[in-house]
User: Fold these one by one.
Assistant:
Number 1:
Amino acid sequence: MDQDLKNELSKHGIFATTFEELYNWGRKNSVWPLTFGLACCAIEMIATTMARYDLARFGAEIFRPSPRQADLMIVSGTVTKKMAPQVVRLYNQMPEPKYVIAMGACAISGGPFRDGYNVLKGIDRFIPVDVHIPGCPPRPEALIHAFMALQEKISAQHLTGEARPRHLKQELPSEFPVPEFGEHGLEPAQNDEVFHNPLKVLQG
Amino acid sequence: MGKILPMAPVEHPWATILVLLIAAFVFGGVPLSLAWLWAKLYSPAKPGIQKNATYECGLEAKGDAWVQLDVSYYLYAIVFLIFDVEAVFLLPFAAAFSGLSLAACLAMLVFLLLLVEGLIWACQKGVLTWR
């Protein structure tokens, strides 16, 4: 619907919307995260949900203890190679549509532990990440910012047409291959369909 | 005597309950069926092996749920329960100890000895050795 026409109508006290906007408005204001913390970032995540920062204002206070009921996975902390298969499996068990926030330097890239023998260098090697928040750890305001960015992303999604998101394309899978914790780290080391190595991208 | 009142339509005493019962079922059933219908029409269902798995803690389920537990757990639990209850009685006994008569102390001693006897019996039966 034309934005100018909408503004004009709203001046006359007429509220016009589309089914898609209404649907997305409902979706973005009821994103339920998974109860799931990995390291120190989880403490900031807990602080975000408490009274001072109050994530409930964005409709996301209900942290579900089961992946079956959650829409959002906040990867809050260092993902070790031993934990990565469990993280991917939990992601696979979440119903569609599902979103991922990579919270903090560790979840994005391994952070200060990047050179550690047991640290995964970013969860985006195995699952698609919607919002990355830098920080070590990010403050609760940063998590709220990431959450608002995710809400903007959700409200901009089209429900029909070619540009519709992944979860509405029936041919695309909802499960991603779970890596095995092998003798020399994870096998495979990354999911090439999800992860695009920036070095390789630069080299063309 | 008083005059006969005109007859009101006869109502069964349980009729109100019946109406409320039906209303309660409708009140619960309508939102549930609407949600079910909505999910049937619009939910992007993408089932998979892992998504349909029973266990939802990130780990894969191993083995069988129908395992047999060692009977020793049961015996240990019973012996524990005896002394658990004993501790409950010992606490007020200890609190009121200085004001108790000799008879009360003897009664408590008998109670304690009975339980200690039970412990010795359990020990002789080999309950306390883990096999």
Number 2:
Amino acid sequence: MSRNISAPLQRTARLLDLVPFINTHQGIALKDLAKHFDVTPAQMSADLTTLWMCGLPGYTPLELMELDFESGFVSIANASTLSKPRTITFQECVALLLGLDLITSSLPSDRQDLVKVAESLRARLTQFLGLPIKLSVVSETSGTVAMAIARAIETKAGLHIRYHSMYKDLVTERTVVPVNLYESDNHQYMRAFCLTAQDYREFRVDRIDQAAPTEVSSEFSGKSGNTEKINFSIRIIRSSRDVSERFAIQQSAVGTSQELSSFSRQWIERSVMASGDAVQLSIPLDIRGEIVKKAQLMLNRYKEA
Amino acid sequence: MSRKIERLINLTIALLATQRYLTKSEIFRTVEGYEGSAETKERMFERDKDDLRSLGITIDVGSFDPIFNDEAGYQIRSEHYQLDLGEITPTEVSLLSLAADAWQGAAFADAAQSAILKLSSIGVPADPIDIPGLSPKLSNSSADLETVTEAIANSDFLLFDYLAANLESQERTIIPFALSNRSGFWYLSGVDQEIQEIRTFRLDRVQGVIKHGKNRDAFEFPTAFELSEADTIVNSRFAVIDVRKGKGQALRSLATSTKDLGEWDQIKVPIHTLQSLASEILWHGDDAFVHEPSDLRDYIVTQLEILVSNHE
């Protein structure tokens, strides 16, 4: 239900939806009914009392709905007019379609049976919308990988992964023990103890392209070494959306300086390089030196060719 | 308040049960709750109709005697009122609840749960799908999605300020017809009214709130448009780049072809904008080397010279 609908209207909608629900769940406990509709039992009693007064014009006992809920269990009769569920709204249908698309693209590759069912549902919901609009959600995480991680977390087991590290620009294979999954900045991350690095590491789940369960000796130290953040400072020479998004900064007026920090030297170096003429790295000096060295090396190659 | 609610329910029942259009005077005479002066009743009825429509109930207006064109009548058709998605299976019920749960804490959480509530009234029990880790979420969606969907439903205008690549704020007016989510970002596609061409916008680059404007003209939906094309440009140019073996994963993922050169691979990458591709190439340092086109090469060389002078 849309948030901009007033309380009395929300209640009207609930009453309309109550009739078909009780109709297919005759004898349901009042407290279960209240829970299903996310209201208190007292509110549910009030709703049923109101509903009791409704019916077809005439409003004699013959036309009114018959509701029985005194025993704490609810049943309904003589409600054929409202007995079928209300149709879903355009917005509700869009919400279901987008959600369904995400689920479909997250299914593990060995569940083609479910993909088929989802596609048939999608076709019917799209037809229901009645407009040639395009909706799509592509899950950034492979369902097979997500399943392997979830199993490993649940059973505290090891996982052999193939990971693309963006900062190092390397595809590495490592053995990890996943701890948990979390969301940050639009992406899903896995926190895990990496046996290769003997330390805790964060992995972006969409950059894990393979994950398989593996045996891990129970005696890994599990201790965290201290990874310290590297402070760095950049001066904005040309402001651009690219720079604001890359360094996650709000203010990027020309001439201003930004004090920032990162866990990765490589990330700092690459980000400054990628920003080209837009940004100057003030500190640390050693990374400045690296940038000059690398840029000079590349220039030489371009001039040779 | 509960008298108003009773009246709305009774009105719905009366309009649903009738086989023909009911006139206003018939409604006032028979449906319980319409009291007071003619004017009061009239006002009540107008508001009630609007209220029911805001709940998504379609009320048909017509005349039951077309020849004499007399007083207008009202009716709710059961085919408009009732849910009809065909036969629903227990597995489908489960997939739909997973779809609704994907919105947990996000823009359409309420809409999705309200749809599930209606579906639960069909009385088909769910057949739980047991896939560990299958609970993807559509998080980080902006509240604007409601405005966007409403505009899509009615082919209305959306007006917003968009942050361009040069950090300029541009005023845009579009008629939207597509909404997608890729790599964790929401994208909105529509016909830009100023240039009458399809443009795609990343929702988190919209500044401030999106405004809704009524469109009274007919809108022709673009049919040839595919969401997967939203990022590419037709007739785009290509760059030829050498990438060191085992390196340049991000560049390789853009490649349309790859040639093995031994220590290096030569890849062909479409150019979306020169600047964005140059930035991607510079990120990869001395693991990537541009052959063609010459303007991209020149741009990279200039950037490198500035990088050297800025950091010496």
